Structure formats: C-alpha cells, structure tokens
C-alpha cells in the first residue's frame, strides 16, 4: 500500500533517528494490519518514521524507529533482546548514495513495497524520494520486517531488519535444539 503523507517531514536527518523497544502506540498517519499465522502485526507510519506492533495473544512487542523527543537511545547497529518466550533481533545500516543512485533505489523500493499485500509505504511532500517503507513476512516460527527511511537531501537511506521468534532451547538429554512454544 502506497500513501502520500499529508504532514511535514519531521525527521529530516538520518542521524535524528532513535530506536525504542516497548513504547506505547504513537499517533500514526497510516496503518496496515496483518494476520500472520496467529500473530497480529501492525505496521505504522509516523510523521517521524515508523512503529511496528506485534502480538500473539500472550506476548506483545513494540518497535519504534523515529525522531523521538527526549530519547537518549540513538539508532543502534544491532540489538538482541529476550521478550518473554521470544528472541528479538534488530539490525540497522545507513547507505550513502549519489543523487542518481538514490533516485533509482527509491523508485525500486517504492515499487517493491507499494503493491505488496504486506507492504506499507508513505511519501512525504516536497521530494518524491522522501519516504518511509515497511514490509513484513512470516518465516517459520519468526515474524520479520524490514524498513527503509529515505533522506534524499542527504543522499542517505536507513535500512533496518527485525526478526522476532520463539526462543530456541537446548534439550538437556539429547543436546538437540527444539523450539519453545512457537509463535504460530
């Protein structure tokens, strides 16, 4: 789903992005609700970037990557956390591109996400390449999502990848891994 966000672009620099886990839902400008094999995923576009809410009835997870006033947690390169019976893994990177390469990459990503049933993208006024895009999928016992935050004025694209899934435990007698209660 592609939408035009009718608001000022409030996170205008890649370095302004912060990461937070466990925040309450923030006001969203566009939302996509998904059911993924027993898990509910809500992709949310904020005026200041994105929020993803994940719930399976027992456990919930909220990830926010946005310009967060008063936040002291900058965007990390990687995070691994335990949330109840889930493992949460987050990774981020920043791509710096020439103006021409940036325009091509922006068009490619918007085309990828815009028409996909599990994709949500929003463009911001003032520059056709200013956008935030999210895409979610289910892979086995994991829910995964990727996001792209475009800063055409800097030629920078912030890319994130998140995986949330059942904790893997080692069986005491056999030494083999087996899944804990799966997120299904």
Distance between the termini: 25 Å
Main beta sheet strand tally, sense and closure: 7 strands, mixed
The succession of helices and strands, N to C, reads EEEEEEEEHEEEEEE
Global outline = globular
- Main sheet strand line-up: 1-9-10-11-12-8-7
Mean pLDDT: 84
Let me know the number of strands.
Answer: 14
Report the portion of residues in β strands. Answer: over 45%
Based on secondary structure, the structural category is mainly beta
**Count of DSSP-assigned helices:** 1
Report the helical percentage.
under 10%
Radius of gyration, in angstroms, nearest whole number: 17 Å
Report the uncertain regions.
170-184
Describe the protein in words:
- By secondary structure, this protein is mainly beta.
- It is 9% helix and 51% strand.
- It is built from 1 helix and 14 strands, in the order E-E-E-E-E-E-E-E-H-E-E-E-E-E-E.
- It has one helix spanning 99-114; strands at residues 2-4, 18-21, 30-36, 39-46, 49-55, 60-66, 78-83, 86-96, 119-123, 131-139, 142-151, 156-166, 168-170, 177-179.
- Strand 7 (78-83) and strand 8 form a beta hairpin.
- 34% of the residues are buried.
